[in-house]
Structure formats: C-alpha cells, structure tokens
Please model this.
Amino acid sequence: MAKPLLKSRTILEPFAQFNASSSSIRSLALFSTSPSETLIYVGTVSGKLLLLSLHHPNSNSSSSHNQESSSNNENRDNDDQIKFVRHMLISDCAVESIHVFGEIEKVLVVSDGFIHFVDLELVKPVKKIGALKDVSFVARRLRSKGNEGFTKLTVGGGADASGGSSFLQRFGGGGGGGRLNGGVVNDLPIDDNCVFAAAVGKKLILVGLVGRSNESYDSVAGTLVTMKEIQCVDLVKEMVWIDDSIVVGSSSGYYLCSCVTGHCGLIFSLPDMSTPCLKVLKKEYKVLMLVDNVGIIVDSQGQPVGGSLVFHGSPDGIGEIGTSVISLHNGRMELYLKKSGKCVQKIVFSVEGTGQRVIADDEDETGKVVVVATSSKVICYLKVPSEEQIKVFLRKKDFKEAISLVEELHDDGEITKEAMSFVHAQVGFLLMFDLHFEEAVDHFLLSETMQPSEIFPFIMPDPNRWSLLVPRNRYWGLHPPPAPLETVIDNGLIAIQRAIFLKKAGLETAVDDDFLLNPPNRDDLMDSAIKNLIRYLKASREKELTSSVREGVDTLLMYLYRALNLVDEMESLASSENWCIVEELETLLNESGHLRTLAFLCESKGMSSKALAIWRILARNYSSGFWKDQTRINETSGEGVNIISGKETAATEASRILEELSDKDLILQHLGWIADINQVLAVRVLTSEKRSHQLPPSDVIAAIDTKKTEILQRYLQWLIEEQDSDDPQFHTSYALLLTKSALESYETEISSEAGTSKQINGLEPEKQSIFQNPVRERLQFFLQSSDLYDPEEVLDLIQESELWLEKAILYRKLGQETLVLQILAVKLEDNDAAEHYCAEIGRPDAYMQLLDIYLNPTDGKKPMFKAAVRLLHNHGESLDPLQVLERLSPNMPLQLASDTILRMLRARLHHHYQGQILHNMSRAVGLDANLARLEERSRHVQINDESLCDSCHARLGTKLFAMYPDDTVVCYKCFRRQGESTSVTGRDFTNDPVFKPGWLVTD
Model:
C-alpha cells in the first residue's frame, strides 16, 4: 500500500548564484531571450543597473537536470552558469524598480523620481524622461489571454477633467527637456506593447507610446504621451494594471480604478500599520492582494476568486512559479499551492542580518526561473521538471501522492493526457513488483497509451511468439524488466523476508508495512496476480489492437484461465469470436484434459474436422461422466439439477457443427456414432437447412445403417414432404420401410397382448421412437397422399397380414373397387367409409354392389341386414327398386326393410315429379329467350340524312350501319374496327350481356 500523502515536495532547486558584494541590491527584473538564456537586471542602491546572463537547460533537456547537479551548483560561489555582462549608471539615487518591455527592446527604470529608458544589452546611453517627476511606482499594462477587445486608449480621452493635458517626450531629445504638443500626436495610434501607468503622489498618469518606428535607436523611436490622469484617494505605494482595470495599494487600502472612466473605488481597507503588496498571477491573470500574512486572490474587477492563501508570517515579497505562489520571509522562501493553499516546499536562502530581499520570476516566458536577491547576493532557482517531481514520489513509493501531483499538473495544463497515461503505467509496473497486483491493474487500465503486449512477459517467458511485440521501454528505469509472475512473486517474497530482518535491526525499508506484519502466502499472491491480469486482458479485448496483439491477448488469456482452471470462462472464450492461436494452446489443453475447450476453439477457427474428432473421443471416453446443460432436460437429479450425459453432450455439439457443413465425406464419417447415441441428432444433421448445399440422397441412404430404420424413414420423409422429391424410388422405399415397421409394430402389440415383452429385431418400444405419430398412422397417411410409389410391391408385403385398412388403400390405388368395398364393409365394418367410397366412385351400381356385399358377405359371415337397411335409407333414391327387390334375401325380416323400401319408392316418385317440373321450366325459359330474340331481330331503325355514327360521327346517309344491343348505331367501317361484341360505350356483351324483360325473365 502507498504511504500517507506527504506535505512537501521539491518544486524549486538552487541552480546558480552571483555575489555583488560591492553593491547593495534594491530591485530585480528578468527577461528570457531564448528557452535556455535569461537576462537578469539588478538595480542597486547606488544607482547602478547590472546585467547578468543566466544559462540554464531548456525544456527539451530539462529531464537530464537532476538533484545531484543542483546540489553541486548550490555550493559554488561563482557558478559558470551565471555571468556578469556589464553595468550602467542610471542616476545617483537607488534604482527603485525595473520593467522590461521586450517587444520594443527597452528597459524602463525608475530612479530618483524619474523614468529612464535603456536598451536590453545596456550598450546605448540612458534616456531620461524629464517630463514626469516624482514618479514613485510604474505598472505596465498587461493584456489577459484571449482578451482581444480591451479598450483602445486615446490621447486626452476619458471622463477625467485633467485628461486633456498631455506631454511630449522624444527619445532622441535632451536629458530632461520636455515640451507640450497636445494637438500633434492625437491622430497617431498607440503601441499596445508600451502602455504603462506612473504613480505620482496621489495621481496616476497613463502613458503610451505613439509613432514608434523600426529604425535605429539613435533616430526618432517614438513619442510618449499622456492618455489620462486619474486622481487617487491616498498616496500610491503599489499598483498593477490588467486590461482596463488598475488595482492600487495605499496605506488605507486597496482601490480599483478604471482606465476608461477614471473612477476609483475602494475594494477593502487595510488595518493600521499594514503595508500593501500586490502581485499579478500571470498564469491566470488574477491579482493577489496581501493583508498581513493573508493573500487574497481577485479578478480584474476586484471580485474574490478561489480561496485565500495563509502565509507563515507577513511576506517580504511575492513570486509565482507554475501553480505555486512564492513567499519571502526572514531569509526563507516558501511555496504554496494556489488551489489548496498548502505549503509544499521551504527553502532557506539567507542567514544574513536584516535587509531588503527581493524576488523576480519569469512567468511571461519560460515560467521556470525564479531569482531571489539579498543585499549582496543573487540566487537563481530553477523549477524542477514535472517528471523529476513525480520520480521523487515514485522512488519513495508514495504512489498516491505521485498520482495526485500528476492530476494536479494535468488540470493546470502542465502535462498532457499522454504523459498522465505514461505515469499511470509506470505506477502500475512498480506496484506489480511490489506485489500489489489489483492496484497495479487499476493503474494499467487508467493508462490509455499502454499496450497490452507490455504485460506479456509476466505471463509467458521469453522468447515466445510475441516477444518482438513487447516494447523495450523501461519507462524511467524505476522497476526491473518484466518477468514471469513466478519470478516476480519469488523475488518479492525474498525482499519481504529481507525487510523483516532489517526492520528488526531498526532500519527503515520501502516494503509495505502490511506485508511486514502479515507476510503474504505465495499461492494467494499467484491467484491474485492471475485474476487481475485476466481482468486487464479482458478489458484490453475492447480496444483497437493490431491482429498480432489480439492474438497474444486472447491466447494468453486462455493460459491464465487454464492456470485457475476456469472451465466456463475457457469454453466461453473458445466458443466466441476470438484470436487465439490453436497451435499454442493445443498441447496445453490436451495435456490438461480440457478437450471440450479445444473442440470449441477448433470449431471457432474453422477446423471442423479436428473439432469433430475431439467430440468423438469425448463421446467414447466420457460415457460415464455428466455435464450440466441448461438447454436440455433428460434427467432430474435429487437436487433438481438438470443433467445430461457426456456422450449426449458430445453428440449434440458434433451435430451442431455438422448441421452447417456441406462436406459429404466428413458428415457421413461421423453420422454413425452420433446415431448410436441419439437418432434425433442424426436426423437433424441429415435434414439441416443451414448448409449451403444439400447432401446427395443416394449417398446418404447408402451410408445409413440398415438397422436404424427410423433414421432412414425420417430422412426419406424429409426428402418427400419438405424437399418435394418426386423420385418414385424414394416414395416406394419410404412406403416399404413404413410397411415393415408397421408389421413389426403390429406383431409387437399382439405379443404384448399375449403377455410377452419380446422386441422384434431389436426395436425399442414405440414410446422411444423419434416420431410423434404411430407408424401405422404415418403409413396410412402416406399411402393415401402419394401417387408415386408402387402399390403392388407394398401389397405383396402385407398380403398375408391383418393390415386391412392399408390393403383397402392399396386396392383403391389399383382400382379394385370390389375388394375395397369388401374390406371396408366386411373386414373393417366401417359403413361410413364404404358409403363414402361409393360416393367417390359416383355410379349407382356401386351402392348396389355394396348392398350385395351386405346381404351376401363372404368368409362365412351372416348377412348384415342393419347395414343394408342403413344403406337403403341413405341412398335408396338412387337405386332401382326392382333391382333392390331382386337383391333382397328371402331371409331378411320384412319389418326391417318395409319402411325403407316405402321411403325409397316415395323418394323416387318425388324425384320424378321434380324432374318434370325442371323440364317444363327449362322449356319455358327457352321459349321466352326465343321470343326476345325474335323481337330484337324485328326491331326497326330509322336513318335519315342527319343520322350520325356514334363512333366516328360521320353522316350515315345511305351507308351500311350496325346497331348494338345497347341501341348504339355505328357505320360499318367502325363496326369492323370495334367488333361485334364491344360497343362504342366500351361495354363487352360477352362478359356483360344485356337482359331485357320478358314474361319469365325480368330485370
């Protein structure tokens, strides 16, 4: 486990120092000319301006700068990194403040109440601005990032009454001679890079540069003009200017002045004897206002933002570096985080007596240099690179503090998201070697740039198939190279044992206290490591990976599942879409007995032949085992768990594969053992609709074991009923198979009724059949529905049997009506079926033939008088009474036939009368039709010179014409074109005739 969060860290480290023993330092300013060079301007009490050059590592080489080199630099009195360049005398008084205007290559110096301008290299003469006197403080106008629309100040603008007074100072003019010329410069633009406010007593004077050219320093370089004068309440001691707001500090309090309106308002008052101190936090363009030892951060409108900073004592100076605020106090420098307010670093830089100490930072440029000056010494500090700060925590095993720092740096924009991912991966590897596997994988998952191949060496030793995929990056060299888990755990346990001895000797170690108090068990550590690596690999499967890495992830994931014997997970991975390498896993799974997993894996890779061979082995070797299967219910154990035998499971999985294959040889090769286990599965394989090409029926039929008649029957049934096969050979074979099964079933039933339980030809009882319907029902249905089989072959097979209904169907196919009626009426005594068959024949003599059978049955049976009477009752009207009387037996009781014969005679007379009526009505209708036709033919049509054709509208005159039944008249030419069945109205008289009322036919 990581140790508790530390309250300090190294953000700044001493880099170089310069002794100015002959001068007393009063002010400082920095300016970066390049990423690796910073100019330091030092103002002295004697009025000199010193120029120092500091050379330091740039951002690209900062990682090579370490604490060891820093400590060496700190001990040097005259470091080669900082060099004195030159100095320049500004005035006879102290240099109060220094402001660098790098954009115009000028340095503004306040000394003796005047503003002086010098060049950056201190080569050219000092230019004194004599028009402004008694200047106590100068603040450069800063423009916040993204603020493109701040107010453009103009000469003499604003609401202040004194804003109209302006002055003119030429850079190339004399030492102090200024002259007024307010009207000359009003139309010139103001250079935004040189706008500042000068404090003169209780007054602020806003000054800008106009008319600046790019010519040499000795020529006219521009004109300074007064843009506005703002009256303050008290004497100005501190001042900062951001955008359109100027924050002023005085003995009475802090004020907010608007450079646009000139209004000056109180922000809050200061207690007595308090000294104001302001610092612009340029990273966010906020202002820190000091009240005794409390720093309050406000925005450019004077509104508080964030929390307050509480310093350890009233600061002598304030600086800024990155996300920290620097406080100088009694020769000590303290760094406070802006967000949390915590003090994270303390540096003692001076043990001298009392004296002024100043600080300057370089937040405008690189943001990594801080310079502190005592009365006689300049000390330079460099910001420790972010990665070095993180490394310190990692070396101390302070992982939580390291991650907290990384998140803070990321939020502040100092490191990228990729760098944050890099640190998470580094922490993960360190935790792996510290045996904290769960926390390690948590960090691995948080790293978006880490590749899954980086953990392959923990699972499989080198060299292996994926060795070249593993990055050879050891990150920051804080952990050893990845090794197999066994090695990592063994080395970790040795380190724990060593740490226990060291702790007993009173020495501190970096090993977790929990491990020291409760040494872990090797098996538990191995179990935890494997489980967490499984978790990482499973998450990695969701990422976009190359095919090689995917193969490694899935294959090694299978290795880890096998190590913990996670059978369900192994089979789930093998049966789903995966990138496993079969060659890498085949030996492992074979030797460990996980053949089911290997079979699923081979199937997923398209190796169907190998998968089927494995299932066949399982069916043979696991005959006594049981596997849980929630999709099938064969048996229910005492605990209510559905179980199915291993043989059945193997056959089910093999049949599932075969159902999608079109390889005839492979299917028929495995059909036999599947059929031995479960005939339903075998049928499912043969009749599958999933395969692209169906199997040749002749080959399948030849391959089916002749003893497994039901499989053959079901296959032939599928060919005939579902594949619409019209091959007579298949129909005949199917009929013969059904017939044989029906005969065997009938004999079995007879034997069972006789008290025996023997099975015919080894057949199982009907209840275990793959068919739902009894075999005789299926036989009868097929014999009736198909016309393609050979009925004589089937009849020969059942000729000597008692399958009378089947015989009746066959005789019917052969057209032997008498035999059919004899079977239906005598053998089966099914009067309805016999009468129905007579109706199908459709001849009256069929009923007479059936009556003869009823009255004179064969096989020694007595006459069936009741059936005969029933026949006469139902169909007597269609029979000839004389023939019926001739057929009646003298032995038939008269009372059985009298009512029927009487009803039959009456029915015949009734039918005779009905026939006469229908005949006479038909004649009447025919007569009416003839009369109507005669009327139509005798109709007269009168045509004159004005008569027109109803089709072409030509005059008929003496032309030939025709008239349709709907009374339309057309010329003969149109009649030939229209035809005689369709009139010009579009009516087709063939399909829509015209009926006219007659004496019998009416509308």
